[in-house]
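One such given next:

>
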Amino acid sequence: RAGLALEAALFRIDFDDQIVNGSSVGLPLQTFANAGKTLHQGFEIGWRAQIGDLIGAPGNGLYLLGAYTWLFDAKFDSDQISGGQNIKGNRLPYAPEHLLNASVGYEFPRGLDVRFGMEHVSKQYTDNLETGPGAANGRTGAISSYTLYNMTVNYETRRDGLSLFLVGNNLGDKTYIANRTDGIQIGRTRQIIGGVDWQF
């Protein structure tokens, strides 16, 4: 349909011998380990909706843009003993079930494009035992879900090949854990970046 673009896919990935970061299966840092059979299954969809075209008002520059992934299976799929437990069926480390990026923007007639968006990552485990509480060394423990808000402004000047941009990441300056591979690693703080893009 004019004004609407959609792409969707179902996927299933079977590994016989998936190699994972060793720290997620109880080995020292900077090593890798064979996780045996693993199964990844999910659904992805991406979209862009040009609202003006959808409602019969082509001069309207409002648009919606986004992508969503539902990873409903991401598990160890063979018998393995770790920490005295059989981890078959446990969720793989760093495999959040839901990922969402969604934006609303407006394209103005004279080259200005303003977009405001959000990024959501659901809860994820960092080791093969699905450990919930964080360890004292920070290397294991679940990572809570988080949502970030971002902004982008682009301006195409009247000079060929010259544009200006302004990007704001994590506008709410949210503090969140992004990784535990080498201990707790905090995600990016609020960032405001501006620049000039000149193609010649």
About this structure: The helical segments are 51-54. The mean pLDDT is 91. Residues 128 and 185 are 19 Å apart (CA to CA). The first strand starts at residue 4 and ends at 15.
